[in-house]
Design goal:
This protein has 191 residues and is of the alpha+beta class. Helices cover 26% and strands 24% of the residues. Strands 2-1-3-4-5-6 form a six-stranded antiparallel beta sheet, covered by helices on one side. A hairpin with a 2-residue loop joins β4 and β5.
């Protein structure tokens, strides 16, 4: 995977995450959930072993928050494949139906980025050919909303953690056996 020359800002990180998402989708037809961050130790990437159930999803979100604290992240991006369902103009969205079970669902790669200035997001519509293989992304969509909410949002701590808090987070990650990887150093992206 080609690395962008610099990873210094949220926009740089979003571009890298989009590049990585396309690489994954073209090579395997899927995007493993991935956290990208820029922190005191430079750019890092983390992928969970699996997201088989809600508990695993919650654990990934919690681990992502700990990694951002441990590495004093200044920007982060969560990259995920997701089903989305949107309200029809003039109607309320039915919140009782899960997007993955909705008849009118749409498949996206969602990039949710955060830095201390705020949030940015890109919804990349997944286009598949008739046999279900990844064909490409449609034009990015960004549904009208001021903020993203949910288990995979608000990953970045609201203020830069001090050294003591960072050390506690690092110890918690060590106990969990989690390590983020510098994408420039290793081709192995899993913890």
């Amino acid at each position: 995977m080609e690395q962008h020359a610099k990873l210094e800002t949220l926009d740089d990180l979003l571009a890298q995450a989009a590049h990585y998402a396309e690489y994954c989708m073209r090579s395997s037809g899927r995007l493993p959930p991935t956290l990208f961050l820029i922190g005191a130790d430079g750019p890092l990437i983390f992928m969970p072993q699996n997201l088989a159930n809600d508990a695993a999803k919650d654990d990934f979100a919690t681990t992502a928050r700990l990694i951002c604290i441990a590495h004093a992240a200044t920007a982060c991006v969560m990259a995920l494949e997701a089903w989305a369902k949107f309200a029809v103009p003039g109607e309320k969205l039915d919140l009782t139906e899960r997007p993955s079970e909705a008849f009118d669902r749409r498949e996206f790669v969602i990039l949710m980025g955060e830095d201390r200035a705020g949030q940015k997001r890109n919804f990349l519509p997944i286009i598949r050919s008739g046999n279900g293989k990844f064909f490409g992304f449609g034009d990015p969509e960004n549904p009208a909303s001021d903020t993203m909410e949910g288990r995979f949002a608000q990953i970045l701590p609201p203020k830069t953690p001090d050294d003591q808090i960072r050390q506690i987070a690092q110890a918690m990650l060590k106990v969990k056996g989690v390590k983020a990887t510098n994408p420039r150093v290793s081709r192995r992206f899993r913890s």
